[in-house]
Amino acid sequence: MSAHNSSKPATKVVSGGRRKDWTWPVVNPPIWRASTHLYETTQDLRRGHPNEDGHFHYGRRGSPTQWALAEALTELEPGAYGTLLYPSGVSAISGALLGVLKAGDVLLMTDNVYEPSRDLTRTLLADFNIETRFFDPLDVDGFADCFCPKTAAVLFEAPGSLTLEMCDVPKLAAIARANGALSLIDNTWAGPLGFTPLTHGCDITIMALTKHVGGHSDLMMGSVAAGEELYKRLRIKSQALGMVVSPDDAALALRGLRTMHVRLQHSTATALKLAEWLEQRPEVARVMCPMLPGAPGHDLWARDFTGGCGLFSFLLKGADVQAQSRFIDALELFGIGYSWGGFESLATPFEPSRARSATSWPPAGVEREDRFGIRLAIGLEDPDDLQSDLAQAFEKMDLK
Ligand SMILES: *Cc1c(COP(=O)(O)O)cnc(C)c1O
């Protein structure tokens, strides 16, 4: 699809990866369900095939269904040479970290990181003698002091997917580079339509395809994209870890990808409308939504990002855990569950004090009694219906 390299992202979402020799004469690549790839002769088998993308060899190296998805994602990611697929977002994160770190290295991780990313530093990386230190993503001056000669990589998440702090990615990535460390970013929130990390100083971009790309709450997958040298290094490690996604799941992800642009536009617009409305509610202490003018991090978002999504949070004013639960339990249109990026709206409670080490919760400017939060993942429902649902849940929450 190189003829379309100059297309806009909305077009690439539709055209990416649809090589004629993988699809013709149908629109989508067929589901190549295969472990065995056959060779014509023993001579052919002995000669083998180059260990490169797009060559049949054996099921673990994928088939056109997976190749088409990886290629479509690469086309959406300026600066990327290739994209690796992993069976979940977490395996993409651990795969990327294991791919660039070695024993004795120090990893810096943003303090507002997705909690399973924090957990794997203790349950996985520590066993390989990789030490992790957490940093405050909003403290640019302090960040430079976090480096030591052993610091090999930094993991960012912007904004944090629970509390939505927006850090200055270009500035922090430049500091990392000046200190000889690689910058990895979990870009699940914005995805490539909202933020292109490799053009903002990051070396590796990671996504949970489970969220916006899947889009229908029925799929788990992750991706890692990078420039040529790093991509090739990561590919060797990913093959060593035996990472492969099923062709059925790849086909589902491709199906989700084709509508991602319109879904994100809709959920972003609804989220913004609800965030504005929540800001006026007496029960709300703070809205955490960088797309909202005046909200923390909005300036950085407006400078670096071209889009957002339906995920944002707010803090209840003077609530306790019971009030927080009453609010969520009263919601009728919002499911109670983890994940986001699906067509249906979700709500989850949070109070992340115990998952912070370099920062404190609640953040500066928020009273301690306002520390209980609600995270909303906005889907494709009518915005007015969602707003009415939130309004009736505030009534039932019955804050004294
Ligand atoms: C969900 C999520 C992940 C992990 O993805 P899974 O597919 O659930 O393993 C990673 N990062 C962020 C920001 C997420 O929201």
UniProtKB/TrEMBL annotation:
Gene3D superfamilies: Aspartate Aminotransferase, domain 1, Type I PLP-dependent aspartate aminotransferase-like (Major domain). The keyword Lyase applies. It catalyses: L,L-cystathionine + H2O = L-homocysteine + pyruvate + NH4(+). The modification N6-(pyridoxal phosphate)lysine is found at residue 211. It comes from the Bacteria. Keywords: Lyase, Pyridoxal phosphate. Its EC number is 4.4.1.8. The keyword S-adenosyl-L-methionine does not apply. Belongs to the trans-sulfuration enzymes family. This is Cystathionine beta-lyase. It comes from Altericroceibacterium indicum. The gene is metC.
